[in-house]
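During the no-cost extension, the postdoctoral fellow (Dr. R.K.) reprocessed legacy sequence entries with the updated structure-token encoder. One reprocessed record is reproduced below for audit purposes.
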Amino acid sequence: MIYDVYTALPTTSVKEVLGTFEKNKIGGVPVVDGKGILVGMVTDGDIVRFLSLQEKVYFTFSMAYVGETEPIEKVLKQRMNTPISEIMVKKNLKTLSTDDTMESALSLLSKHHFKKLPVVNGVGRVVGIISRGDVINRLAKMTSDSLTIS
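Re-encoded structure tokens follow.
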């Protein structure tokens, strides 16, 4: 588990979150309130989808026209200051507790195709992150510990 967790507030801009991702070589952060309580998650995938170029669609009474996409520079200028509260996942958040087992982590990561899960304490405060890499490393260690070399 990663204990030194980078987090963001709901008011943090998309631009600031991208900076955090790049600087720390991470792909997601829990979004917390002022007390450190989990209120959402935002990942690199959420941001990519938010910033993706959208074709303009124009409707008339009988037809729809698909126009060109906007230039990326225009999209970035319009969207970079958006607070992440507008794009973060807020509903059906999946978390692990400090008491959960390796099996619980493995199950949640595989069932929902997540790359990482926040670990929260009894009051919902983020205390860590479990990533696929953490689980793989643990499984590899468990496997190597149980193997005997003849």
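The first strand starts at residue 28 and ends at 32. The mean pLDDT is 87. The remaining legacy entries will be reprocessed before the final report is submitted.
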